[in-house]
Known about the structure:
The structure holds 3 protein chains of 3 kinds.
Chain A: E1 2-11, E2 14-24, E3 29-33, H1 40-48, E4 55-60, E5 63-64, H2 70-76, E6 78-80, H3 93-101, H4 108-121, H5 137-150, E7 155-159, H6 167-182, E8 191-195, H7 199-205, E9 208-213, E10 216-221, H8 223-227, H9 230-237, H10 241-254
Helix pairs in contact in A: 3-4, 3-5, 4-5
Chain B: H1 4-35, H2 42-58, H3 68-85, H4 95-117, E1 132-135, E2 138-141, H5 142-164, H6 166-176, H7 178-183, H8 188-210, H9 220-235, H10 240-261, H11 263-280
Antiparallel strand pairs in B: 1-2
Helix pairs in contact in B: 1-5, 1-8, 1-9, 1-10, 2-4, 2-8, 2-9, 3-8, 5-6, 5-8, 6-8, 9-10, 9-11, 10-11
Chain C: H1 2-20, H2 24-49, H3 58-73, H4 79-103, H5 108-128, E1 138-139, H6 154-176, H7 179-189, H8 191-196, H9 201-227, E2 229-230, H10 232-236, H11 238-251, H12 258-277, H13 283-298, H14 302-318
Antiparallel strand pairs in C: 1-2
Helix pairs in contact in C: 1-6, 2-6, 2-9, 2-11, 2-12, 3-4, 3-9, 4-9, 6-9, 7-9, 11-12, 11-14, 12-13
Amino acid sequence: MLEASGLTKTFDGLTAVEGASLHVERGTIVGLIGPNGAGKTTLFALLSGFLGPDAGRVVFLGRDVTGLPPHLICRLGMARTFQIVQPFGAQTVRENVAVGAHLRHRGRAEALAHAERIAHAVGLGAELDKLAVNLTIAGRKRLELARALATGPALLLLDEVLAGLNPQEITEVIPVLRGIAAGRDGTPGVTVLMIEHVMQAVMNLADRVYVLANGRMIAEGAPAEVTSDPAVIEAYLGHGAAERLRRAYGAAHAA
Amino acid sequence: MLDPAILLASALNGLTTGAVYALIALGLTLIYGVLHIINFAHGAALMVALYGVYFLHRGPGLDPYLSLPVMVPAMFVAGYALQRLVIGRASHGKDENVLLVTLGIAIVLENLALFLFKSDTQTIDTPYTFSTVSILGAMISVPKVVAFGGALVVAALLLLLIRRTDLGRAIRAIAKERQGARLVGIDVEHVFAMSFGIGLACLGAAACFLLPTYYVNPQVGNGFVLIAFTIVVLGGMGSFAGALAGGLLIGVVESLGGLWLGESLGQIGIFLIFIAVLLFRPQGLFGARA
Amino acid sequence: MRGLAGIAAFAVAIALMPAFVTSGYALNAMIMTLYAALLGQAWNVLGGFGGQFSFGHALFFGTGAYTMAVLQVNFGWNAWAALPAALAAGGAIGAAIGALTFRYGLRGSYFALVTLAFAEVFRILANTFQFTGAGVGLMVPLSERAADMQFATRAGYLYLILALVLVGFLVSWWLKHSRYGAWLQAVRDNEESAAALGVDVLRVKLQAIVVSGVLMAAGGAFYVQYLHYIDPHIAYGPAVSVEALLAPIIGGMGTVWGPLLGAALLHVLGETTRNLMGDAPGINLAVYGIVLVLMVSFLPRGVMGLLGTRRAARAAGDA
Ligand SMILES: Nc1ncnc2c1ncn2[C@@H]1O[C@H](COP(=O)(O)OP(=O)(O)O)[C@@H](O)[C@H]1O
Ligand SMILES: [Mg+2]
């Protein structure tokens, strides 16, 4: 469904993403992990058209979408959320979600009705008439999700939708995400590519995981495989960490 | 082809005007650089300063140049109070709001002047108003030469203030990193108001240098607003050296443009420069990046 | 639909006025208030619903006014034929300015200043060219025939401006109840989010400035027909630009009724000042300036915002 190859992006001398490639199969949930500043958000911006790559190609649903503006990519069926939430603050939750719904519903009434359904699905049903500025962090994250979902995407790019939530809230949202991916009430499932720091969620949800460090893809595979990959552990914990961990683990075994 | 002597005289004249423009623009760019706001009332404040100089001359008979020690502190205090009491409270975090508030202030000042002083254009007579001096063979009016020198001296003093004093250090710290400055204990609101005050103090000085060869009426500030903005964007928002160079450049462009196109069409040139710079080179002619 | 009923009731009430009010003074007050409301409605489309604050709406006003005057005076056009041309000219200038400024990503204060600079450029041009009457301006021949869009009575002008304001109302109502309006308000609140939701930000802004320009040009056309005269300072000077933004800011930006409410309040305020202070020039505008500062400082959502907060508070109390 999504095929990115050799993506590179440089900001005034700083290479944020370098030759990154990635492949997302229809109907799967793919995780993208990596330390802070690895270039994950930048990679999302390259995929969704918010930034043009210096090199590389993005093919979505068999179409080359490299360099297309974001609204066209969204119309083709790829929707994204923002790590730093960006609600339409002066508007209600219902109106916020309706903006997304309008992509596939011309009429105001239909868009509002669709927005209501989506808001219920992500657990915002009780806050439909609240102004977006008055939502809690958890509420705003759900709103990001709802708006993107309302555009009726085939592929959803989620940028740390769980960040800033407490464990209770995370446990509530995980089934919501699973529901979105699987499809409910006869709606088709949505393929998901998610940046996530909450490992519990990645291990729980993702079929496959990519690891980005210093702008490069350093590993790819099933979640359990990837998280025990020495290169990945080093990327997260620093040089030599894998060796120390292995020794500690080995010692524990011996005892 | 125009006579080279006329061209030279025109260019020199432009330089003297440009120095005063630069002084006005320095105030504007200081306010922009520190507070990140666009002071739309800058022209109206200049008008107020010009009236101040005018009435000091008409009343106590103070020479415009001797008004400097009155007008500079007076405008400083006015600016400090304006920022502290009005503008600083209105922004609600949106720069358009500040623009609207300063527009409102400009409207109030301009129309109060109209109400109090009527729309008549006023000038002052000094012994030196019509005296001239020959520079490189061109006859230049003495007060314009004084304005040129005075504007450069004030600009130099301003740069010293910014570079060498504790206040200047605080101003630079805030211009660069507002949150950080707050964290290290700088009273940001106070420094904002000081910057605004200094910005208007520049206008006080400019008015003293300007009035001997210029005039004052309630609308006089309008002509300067867009010129000052043009200089500021040309020189790069917040850049002092840019404002100085931009001011001199615009003075010369206006003077030479007026020679070829007539005064009003010459003004179009300035507006078109302003539009073009904002559209195509928002970091300014001399700036490296936004 | 309740909103539309309110607009219809308002239109009927105004239309019945000439049957009861015969004072030329009162009718003129209504005409000038509706005229100010129209300018406010025009600005409100782009500034209130679209979040793009213009300081140079005189650009569209003056273009509409001059098109109207030049076509009648220099080319002998009938006023009713000139009106669509004036509206189209306002829209075309909007499209041109929008294409330039929005394509280069101009926003916020910079957009405001550039529109002002454009208006000044046009003012100087109108001051220079002979076909616009240069500094003297243009006088439209008096006829007082409805066929020439001139009227012997004030009532005629009241109906004309009422019709234009109704168009402004319908546009505003449509912005509140349509997909395009939702997109425009999304762009106002956050361009990046809007783009992520499939909104073509540039196109939406361009359409808004065109609609705004057409409505503003209608204001200019009305001015010429009512006062039979236009000059560069009236057409492209800053006064009209300020008048256009005052009403919606005071009444409530991005609301259907804000511009009319603001225009009415400004009119009452102006008359009160006149009664208290006499007809001194300047004092009226000085008061408007003070109101502008106070509104932005203390009531950024305008008088409608105040009413809205009351309503919201009541709803919360009920719950
Ligand atoms: N617009 C930008 N301009 C300059 N540098 C940027 C920009 N966006 C991101 N960066 C830099 O690129 C790197 C990667 O950032 P990001 O993609 O946000 O990482 P992540 O999402 O993995 O934490 C960081 O060093 C960041 O500072
Ligand atoms: Mg990130």
